[in-house]
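INTERNAL AUDIT FORM
Audit reference: QA-55
Scope: verify that the stored structure record matches its stored sequence.
Auditor: D.O.
Record contents follow.
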Amino acid sequence: MHDGIRHFMFDFDRYIKESFPEVRVSGDERIIRCFFCGKKDKLYINPKKKKFFCFRCGAGQGATLTSFIRDHRGVTEQEAWQILRSGEYDGLPTRDYEAYYAKQIHQPRATILPTEYEALYPLDAGNILGERAVAKLRARGLTDADFLFYRIGYCVSGHYRHRIIVPVTRDGEVVYFVARLFWGWGKRYLNPRRDEIEAEPSTLLFNWDHARDAPILKLGEGVFDAIGLGEDATGLLGKQLHDGQLRLLELGKFTSAEIWLDSRAKDPLADADSDKIAFQLQVFNVPVTICRLQHGDPGDLRVTKIPVTRYTGSSWAAHYHRRYAEREESHDSASDQTRPVTPS
């Protein structure tokens, strides 16, 4: 979507040569060490077609030039678009996912995950159902780096068949997971059974292991909302902030907070939910900003630009009190109309 005419002036070939000094040239192909799996001479890049693919781990299958820049530089989707538009990347750090790849491949599978769980990265060639799951996630803007970073997998069979599995960790250990349908019929989300999990979702925050050190707390609703907001964001696993989650937030290092819930167009109660969360966060004595989307949800930010209205500090508090006063005035007016008249 974003790899068309918008950045036709971006010199991808120059970017490769300047970013990877060890690059080998073979016709239209540029061959480098894969910054995902670390294998030498396995990542093939075609600058003309703006495509890339690793013949060891499969990185790049169906991905875009935007995702290449995003994953290589470790930047957000918006920052990757800016690099493509401006052509400026001097001094920007690069990122290596080899450690994530090794952890995904060699770490014993946590027993909390379904027995049928399989990692989506790397994906065996010809795995049709796996490719369907990948296509579903790519449509939401997720990349190979996301599959590695969040340990995203899927199930072909069993109770969670045809579902994408997103683990929820606590201190590095998987203690919960979200199961999202990617093909076929059934409930969109299927919660783990109580005998399968080690912790209640009301005491957990998605991606908290990474978000706890972020200077800005970005708080979304679901796992894909948090992923859409970036690697430093966390998710409530619901629409409310529970006491157990508040205790987790006490361990965070954030100096300000942003609340990102669904738009009013998608959830009519989203404004009231975000107001309530903002007041709950006052206990931390940090600036709180409510970010209200005009449409969609934070997960859509990976693939499209959505206008955002921000209520910061006293502005959201004043907005909340104004809405509260309007509701009270409306309630009093309705009461006056229905109150029996007392003869004088």
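Auditor finding: record pair retrieved intact. The CA atoms of residues 129 and 156 lie 7 Å apart.
Action required: none
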